[in-house]
Design goal:
Number of helices: 6
Structural class: alpha+beta
Pfam families: HTH_20
Strand order of the largest sheet: 1-4-3
Number of strands: 5
Helix content: 40-55%
Largest sheet: 3 strands, antiparallel
Oligomer: single chain
Radius of gyration: 13 Å
Keywords: DNA-binding, Transcription, Transcription regulation
Order of helices and strands: HHEEHEEHHEH
GO molecular function, one term: DNA-binding transcription factor activity
Protein name: Metalloregulator ArsR/SmtB family transcription factor
CATH class: Mainly Alpha
Length: about 120
């Protein structure tokens, strides 16, 4: 896997973040990652094919919403909450509150929750 590109905090654009958060699966991923933990890609479950899940994770990373770390053949992802809060104060909290209220992305979770 080639090294993932992560935009610097000052280069994260509001339009790109909003576009990345315009999909229910990506909102679901945001909700899963909102606890601040780092998750292995294999832990994430969504009602889409693995290749589509990979696409959604790339969109979030390219927009500056998440940071991906590779360790050998495994990839881990976490929410860049502090960076997003510094750039767009209150945005992520507002999106998460609205998503929780409307249950947007509720089909996305962790493998451990599926049991």
């Amino acid at each position: 896997m080639r090294r993932a590109h992560h935009p610097a905090t000052e280069d994260v654009a509001l339009t790109e973040v909003m576009a990345a958060l315009s999909d229910p699966v990506r909102i679901g991923l945001l909700r899963v990652l909102a606890d601040g933990g780092e998750r292995g890609w294999g832990e994430l479950r969504a009602p889409v094919a693995k290749s589509t899940l990979s696409h959604h994770l790339r969109v979030l990373r390219d927009a500056g919403v998440t940071r991906t770390r590779q360790e050998g053949t495994r990839c881990y992802v976490r929410l860049r909450r502090a960076d997003l809060e510094a750039r767009f104060p209150g945005l992520i909290s507002a999106v998460l509150a609205a998503a929780d209220a409307d249950e947007v992305g509720s089909g996305v979770g962790l493998a451990a929750e599926a049991s």
